[in-house]
TrEMBL record:
Organism name: Metarhizobium album
UniProt-recorded name of the protein: Iron ABC transporter permease
Annotated TM spans: 24-44, 76-93, 105-125, 131-151, 163-183, 208-226, 247-272, 292-311, 323-340
Stated family: Belongs to the binding-protein-dependent transport system permease family. FecCD subfamily.
GO terms under cellular component: plasma membrane
UniProt KW S-adenosyl-L-methionine keyword: no
Length: 347
């Protein structure tokens, strides 16, 4: 009597929401993003009308309102790109580590990129945009490897609590090192302090263009990692049994997130908590399927950073609050709530 050939293991279904509801959330976020983009162009220290907006888009700079719009358009574009990058990077990091506390800021990745840039400026007179970007990506990558290595030591491996503690300690140490590097250099101290807060003010298309290829590659790698992250969510052993190369899946997804974090930090400075808040909110809406979670986290990150930038212009008129300050006020209570939850061992 012949035995039936063994069947390949089937991938267990992931819990989540219906595709119809997910599609509605997707459409809702796209609509909200369009509204926020319009508000970002119109709201500021000077209110502008649609006539000035259309005239500015046509290249006319005849009035103060048209000049204001011309400055806000690249700022809006940078906030959209940076928010999408950080939201997506946070979702990927949480998926790779199965750690609900994972975030480019909390894990020290943004601060590692910042330290690398500051050292390059202070010690090597770095000035070119490409040098900033490559240095920030290198710093982010080295920091991610360092934090994961430290968090993996001891019993239990890389638990969420150990990774969060290792990242927080690394971030504090690197912040102190940034101050130590900058203090003797009064000629760069003002610019570095302003950049360290994290913001999108003063954006120009000349600043944005060099970073676009890095962001494009980071977006592509991260979004294509969705199926791999779904496998990793089932556990390493089950993922390997399903034919997934676990080490390669983690490395490739992490590389995409590091590209996004490093490139964003190079042009905006370190912006914290956005990569923590957005994936959690999106997970509540669409479940844990990364095929939906990743694009929605990118859209949600863009919406949140645009909203934070608009809020920063309104509450401090005629001055402005940088988005790094606004996101810190929004994200810190959210972080405390996550830490106090009972189920923080894994996603």
């Amino acid at each position: 009597m012949t035995q039936a050939a063994p069947q390949p293991a089937r991938r267990p279904p992931l819990p989540g929401r219906s595709n119809r509801n997910r599609s509605l959330f997707l459409v809702g976020l796209v609509t909200l993003l369009a509204v926020l983009c319009a508000l970002s162009v119109t709201v500021g220290t000077r209110e502008v009308g649609w006539a000035d907006i259309w005239a500015s888009l046509a290249g006319r700079l005849e009035t103060i309102g048209q000049a204001a719009v011309a400055l806000r358009i690249p700022r809006t574009a940078l906030a959209l790109l940076a928010g999408a990058a950080l939201g997506l990077a946070g979702a990927v990091m949480q998926g790779v580590t199965r750690n609900p506390l994972a975030d480019p800021g909390i894990l020290g990745v943004n601060m590692g990129a910042s330290l690398a840039v500051v050292v390059g400026v202070a010690w090597f007179d770095m000035t070119s945009a490409n040098a900033f970007i490559w240095t920030a990506i290198l710093g982010a990558g080295c920091t991610a490897v360092f934090v994961y290595t430290i968090g993996s030591l001891g019993r239990g491996g890389a638990t969420p609590l150990k990774l969060a503690l290792a990242g927080a300690a690394t971030s504090v140490a690197f912040a102190s090192m940034v101050i130590a590097v900058v203090l003797p250099r009064g000629d760069i101290a003002g610019g570095v302090r302003s950049w360290q807060i994290g913001g999108v003010g003063g954006a120009t298309f000349d600043r944005i263009l060099p970073v676009l290829p890095f962001l494009a590659v980071g977006f592509a790698i991260s979004l294509l990692s969705a199926r791999k992250l779904n496998s990793l969510a089932l556990g390493d052993e089950l993922a390997a049994g399903l034919g997934e190369r676990v080490a390669f899946a983690r490395a490739s997804a992490s590389f995409g997130a590091i590209l996004l974090c490093g490139a964003t930090t190079a042009v905006c400075g370190p912006i914290g908590f956005l990569g923590l808040v957005v994936p959690h909110l999106c997970r509540l809406l669409v479940g844990v399927d990364h095929r939906w979670l990743l694009p929605l986290s990118a859209l949600g990150g863009a919406c949140l950073l645009l909203a934070a930038d608009i809020l920063g212009r309104i509450i401090a008129r005629p001055a402005e609050l940088d988005v790094g300050i606004v996101t810190a006020f929004l994200g810190a209570p959210f972080f405390i709530w996550i830490v106090r939850r009972q189920r923080v061992r894994e996603l």
